[in-house]
Amino acid sequence: MLWKLSPLGAVSGVAIGAALVSAPIQVQAKIYVSVEQAQQLLFPSKTFTLTPFVISEDYQEQMRKASSVRQPFVGNRIWRTNDGGWVIVDQVVGKHEMITYALGIKVDGSVQGIEIMEYVESYGYEVADMRWRKQFEGKKTTDTLKLNADIQNISGATLSCKHLTDGVKRLLVFHALVLKNYSAK
Amino acid sequence: MLGENYCIRIKLFFAIGFLMAITNAYAGEGAFGWIYTLDLQPKGTLEFEQRLQRNRQQATGTYDVTLSRTELEYGLTHDIQIAGYVNSYATNINQNYTNCDGGRSTCTAGFPVPASYDAASPYQKSGIDGISLELIYRLTNPVTSPIGIGFYIEPTFGKLKNELETRLLLQSNFLDDRLVVASNLVFANEQLKYLGNGNTPESMFDVLLGASYRFAPKWFAGLEARWHHDFGSYNLRDQTQKAFFYGPNVHYAEKEWWATAAWRYQPKGNSCMGDGTAECSDARVWDSHSRNELMFKFGFPINHP
């Protein structure tokens, strides 16, 4: 038997073993924030009323054009606060899985804050850092909301930063199209 | 019997690799089998990657060559990735050519059988070939630019050959970055050591093109193709082969590991010219090429910044 597993297998085996033994894998923990936690983080001490919306194709198209997010928006996780603010739970595409986040919008249509609710990617956990999320506070639908323009990118987390930024833009457009009028009723 | 043992050992090797992958690993990866993308390691992160390519079946007889690359990738900056490989090989080759010298109907030949080897005997050999180093520089990121552009350079030092490979990496993303279209323009000069006096020049130009779509969370699938040109001298002079390959790929990624499997098939319609005509038959090209090329690779992170 001339063919031997050892040279080919040994190199791989030794390298794999060395990688595993000498440098234990340090993978970030998943981020999980419940809806209730996100609501309280965004609007402490407020009460919330579930206010779902069926989004028409026309609105979906207007939101897509404004934000470039192609994933349809599902309007079944929208809550109105007792003072007219809004909490919207949305999902955008992550590298491997969907990123779930909550956006708080004040009565005047500006961003109260953003909470990352579920993030299970290998890299890019920096999007949950307050310093990055704080950039969205006070933004309105009239703002550019573009990565590397008025929202700074995090190198190494570019895809997540881009999709979350586009997602926030989409929800602000949704507010301008639908929620603002609802609030005015 | 030898063939059966070889097959069992190869399957065992793949199985061990897969089991190690599913019990230990991660993501930060390429969705393609052969095409490099601009998805680089973030700064300060280190990833282990194991790549196994199995080339099977030439004109006749047995051609079964497994090439292994055991790799560590490191993000030097967010746009520069460096890597080092250990390259290994295992061969089981016997009477695989029909265009033979000396009036033989079949003979043992092709990569990496030495020209001086007895063409009537099986060639079975395995071992560590050498090392490769790699550097990728990303000029533009396809996530934020319409076209991502990168440059790749990879010197290889081996017992079978030395090689300097360069690539222009191009990538565009669509549909919320779920559809990745990528192309590599590959140019390489090679010094073949297993032929002639150990200093046989060759060069190569390839165009690789593929698309991969994320059809479900964690799952990508696509197609990739290779338009290949081999030359008998350095710097793309004296062309000896041109060939087309294509096939599917599938990629799965968890937070802690990823794996990719791909298959490239060589259809009829390919050709050889000049000094390379002995390495063609049945409208297909041989040497280091085969009818079927199978790729399996997996990776996992070793650290985070």
What does this structure look like?
Chain A has 185 residues and is of the alpha+beta class. Chain A has one domain (24-140, 160-181). In chain A, 37% of the residues lie in helices and 18% in strands. Chain A is built from five helices and six strands, in the order H-E-H-E-H-E-E-E-E-H-H. Chain A has helices spanning 5-22, 35-42, 57-67, 130-133, 158-184; strands spanning 31-32, 48-50, 78-81, 86-93, 98-105, 111-119. Chain A has a six-stranded antiparallel sheet, with helices on both faces. In chain A, helix 3 crosses helix 5. Chain A is globular, with a radius of gyration of 21 Å. In chain A, 41% of the residues are buried. By secondary structure, chain B is mainly beta. Chain B has one domain: Porin (Beta Barrel). Chain B has one helix at residues 2-24, and strands at 46-56, 62-75, 80-94, 123-140, 148-158, 161-174, 179-192, 200-216, 219-231, 239-253, 258-265, 271-272, 280-281, 284-285, 292-303. A twelve-stranded antiparallel β-barrel of chain B has the order 1-2-3-4-5-6-7-8-9-10-11-15. A two-stranded antiparallel ribbon of chain B has the order 13-14. In chain B, 47% of the residues are buried. Classes of the chains: A alpha+beta (185), B mainly beta (305). The interface between A and B is large, with 44 and 58 residues.
Short description:
Chain A has helices at 5-22, 35-42, 57-67, 130-133, 158-184, and strands at residues 31-32, 48-50, 78-81, 86-93, 98-105, 111-119.
Structural class category of chain B: mainly beta
The strand line-up of the biggest sheet of chain A is 1-6-5-4-3-2
User: What is the helix tally of chain B?
Assistant: 1
Q: Point out poorly predicted stretches of chain A.
A: 1-6, 21-27
